[in-house]
Amino acid sequence: MGRSRNGRRGGGAEAVVEAVDGGLAELIPDRDRARAWTLLIDGAPQSHVDLDDPGHLSFEYQRRLGHVIDLAAPPGRPVHAVHLGGGALTLARYVAATRPRSTQQVVERDAALVQLVRRELPLDPNARIRVRATDAREGLAKVMDGWADLVIADVFSGARTPAHLTSTEFLDEVRRVLKSGGVYAANLADGPPLAHLRGQIATAAARFSELVLVADPTVLRGKRFGNAVLVASDTPLPVAELTRRAASDPHPGRLEHGRALRDFTGGASPVTDAAATASPAPPPSVFR
Question: What's the pTM value of the predicted model, to 2 decimals?
């Protein structure tokens, strides 16, 4: 496995560059935070972690998922969480910091990336986090029925969500794993004409009765490529509080739900395994 350390940055930390299963991983020190790092895979930013403050979420989509985590149960109450896609384990660290004694399972296909992150950005040894190096859907299949309060999907391969994680059959597995009243949240990425995003909303609506979508308004208007967080449950979601939190973020997000969200799908059909495709690749300008 190829590995190198690049020039020193703020605080004397060095960038770590290492080949992993999914491409070239880079851990870049944060100039403004002493023990914070950004993970890139083939130049695409994946995660940001502050080892001194795991409650700090830098990326806007991770902040939105953080709001979902905060509102999934009463403050501080431990939860059972499944994370599909690990990256630098940012959100698992966040749950462990904000909800001590939570039990978590992380499913990350890239075993070499898991080793890199564990070595360079070690987890709190007291955190109840189990990491499985396997495919997200295969790992989900091994979780017990009704185990999870929360399932978070943030899976990208070559900056695209794999096709087999976009279907109704995949969401059947998510529903099987969730407790009654549990919450599913997914980080989705799309750009104009938003066909993938509309299809994912229709797919979730075929399996869950309550949905909300949070994204930058320019993404929702189809003006640029970006992330959107889809939240689904079979019990009412905290729409008002999610709306308030998204609007007050450094990069304010807009929340859609109910009839407006149904209208947004534009008649898109649910996606099945037989017809599923990966999410669109982001244009090169996104990461410049």
Answer: 0.95
- 195-203 mean pLDDT: 98
- Does residue 107 contact residue 86 with C-beta atoms inside 8 Å? yes
Q: What is the pLDDT of residue 5?
A: 58
The string of pLDDT tens digits covering residues 101-110 is 999 999 999 9
The SS3 of residue 133 is coil
Helix (H), strand (E) counts: the chain: 9, 13
Measuring CA to CA, which residue among 238, 248, 240 is closest to residue 68? Answer: 238
Q: Which residue has the tokens 């300008």?
A: 285
Give residue-wise pLDDT tens across range 16-67.
999 999 999 999 999 999 999 999 999 989 999 999 999 999 999 999 999 9
Domains of the chain: 55-276 (3.40.50.150)
Q: Which two tokens stand for residue 211?
A: 């949905």
- Model pLDDT for residues 150-196, shown as the tens digit of each residue: 999 999 987 899 999 999 999 999 999 999 999 999 999 999 999 99
d(CA 223, CA 261): 18
Q: Where are the beta strands (DSSP E) in the chain?
A: 3-8, 14-20, 23-29, 36-41, 44-50, 80-84, 103-107, 128-132, 148-153, 178-190, 210-215, 226-233, 254-257
**H helices of 99-222, where?**
111-120, 136-141, 168-177, 195-205, 217-220
Contact between residue 176 and residue 207 where contact means Cβ atoms under 8 Å apart: no
Which pairs count as long-range contacts for 235-244, CB under 8 Å and 24+ apart, including other chains?
235/180, 235/181, 235/210, 236/210, 237/183, 237/210, 237/211, 237/212, 238/71, 239/212, 241/71, 242/67, 242/68, 242/71, 242/212, 242/214
Instruction: Band the pLDDT of 100: cuts 50, 70, 90.
Output: very high
**Two tokens, residue 172:** 């059947």
